[in-house]
Design a protein that fits this description.
alpha+beta; Topoisomerase I, Chain A, domain 4; 2 domains; four-stranded antiparallel beta sheet; two-stranded antiparallel ribbon; 4 helices; 6 strands; about 60% helix; elongated
């Protein structure tokens, strides 16, 4: 009974951490990282297709990404998709290869990105707290239905709070690490 509540809670916490890591990976830090292109799609024969599925993407060095389209006709659409994204990148091409230089971040842009990181972390903290509330409600319902004792309910609430505190610390650590990366990058 309570084990199911704890297992479901841990699964939802793990999903929240995975989602946060994915969201933070999309935030540009001033260093070349292929995950900044996640979410960019382009028209490939009438079908919206992710950028990473129309060519080979490589990090050449800390400030340069290259994209080698599988079809030469895709050079212009790839370049346009990157230009129209909100990444602020300016790709160039030589007809077959697209080079995307990653410029240094300005102080103002760094502060804006740090705000995005803080917002993402807070959104995930809210998700975690909502999951904690749901787990506490389930434990309370088990106690009302006399499936667990009042002492078990108190122990369950303490366990749920301990699990929540651990995940909140992990979210804070991920956010702090990303902020540091942005400010140093």
């Amino acid at each position: 009974m309570l084990d199911d509540v704890f297992t479901d809670l841990q699964d939802s916490f793990d999903a929240a951490i995975r989602d946060l890591k994915r969201d933070l990976a999309k935030i540009r830090t001033g260093r070349a990282n292929l995950s900044i292109f996640d979410g960019i799609t382009l028209d490939y024969y009438g079908t919206p297709t992710p950028l990473n599925q129309v060519g080979t993407m490589k990090v050449v060095d800390a400030r340069m990404i290259t994209i080698q389209p599988w079809e030469r006709s895709m050079v212009a659409p790839i370049e346009k998709a990157i230009l129209t994204s909100d990444l602020g990148l300016n790709p160039s091409n030589d007809g077959t290869l697209i080079r995307v230089p990653i410029p240094q971040l300005t102080g103002e842009r760094r502060q804006e990105l740090v705000r995005l990181v803080k917002k993402a972390c807070e959104d995930h903290r809210i998700v975690v707290r909502n999951r904690r509330r749901d787990a506490n409600d389930l434990a309370k319902d088990l106690e009302k239905e006399s499936e667990i004792s009042e002492d078990d309910l108190h122990r369950a609430r303490k366990t749920i709070q301990d699990m929540t505190d651990k995940v909140i610390k992990e979210i804070d650590a991920l956010g702090d690490g990303k902020e540091k990366e942005i400010m140093e990058g």
